[in-house]
Amino acid sequence: MATNTVAIKRRRAWTTTVFIKQLMALSGLFLVLFLLFHAYGNLKLFIGAEAYDHYAHWLKGEAFYPIFPKGTFIWVFRALMVAAIGIHIFSAFYTWYKSKKARKHQYAVKKSAVDAYAARTMRITGVLLIFLIVFHLLQFTTLTIRTGFTAEATPYEMVIASFQQPWIFVVYLIFVSLVTAHVGHGFWSAFQTMGWVRKNTRTFMLWLSGIVAGVIFVMFMLPPLFIATGVIH
């Protein structure tokens, strides 16, 4: 009887709100690492067309060869990204659904106005980011939406042609601003969810979250800004 009870508790642990929040936290931290890596790669635009194109072709061809066969790593990486985004979205929806259900039964603990505002902001920015990510993939990955470049254009030429158009710059600015807002709260929240925030580290973690979000914003926006102003062409 005791063994069955333990087994049931273990099975239920996989569906608890705490476990789902931890999944959301870990997947979110993984995505933050991706953003930092992606933003760093974009800075190669400052070195020139040859360096940026080499980096782009390396990712799709010889990345981590011979550990991965040529052209394989990018697909493994994309699969991990899809899995992380899927887990993050599912976790966010699940916790929102459980919270809404708890409020109906009046079991939920009353949140402060700040916490409630942060939760709403995270949901709104998250939904908007989904649409912008799809647009970004259709633009630079599948080339379905060609914003000023041809199908034969190099990666460098695609980026230059795109951000020479004011409306693309504005869309990207909105995109990066939403990412920054999402990361700014989510980074700190993830560490809090994992139980890594203490009274003596709270202020430091808040500052660290702001710094990480700020670094992501600056790294992502520098290349488009220099292209839009004609410094990079």
Q: Describe the sheet with the most strands.
A: none
Number of strands: 0
Residue stretches low in confidence (pLDDT < 50, at least 5 long) are none
Query: What's the N-to-C terminus distance?
Result: 72 Å
Mean pLDDT: 83
Strand pairing plus helix content: what structural class?
mainly alpha
Written overview of the protein:
- Helices cover 75% and strands 0% of the residues.
- The protein is mainly alpha-helical.
- The model has no long low-confidence stretch (mean pLDDT 83).
What topology emerges from the helices and strands here?
Elements: H1 2-13, H2 17-42, H3 49-60, H4 73-104, H5 113-140, H6 155-163, H7 166-193, H8 202-228
Helix pairs in contact: 2-4, 2-7, 2-8, 5-7, 7-8
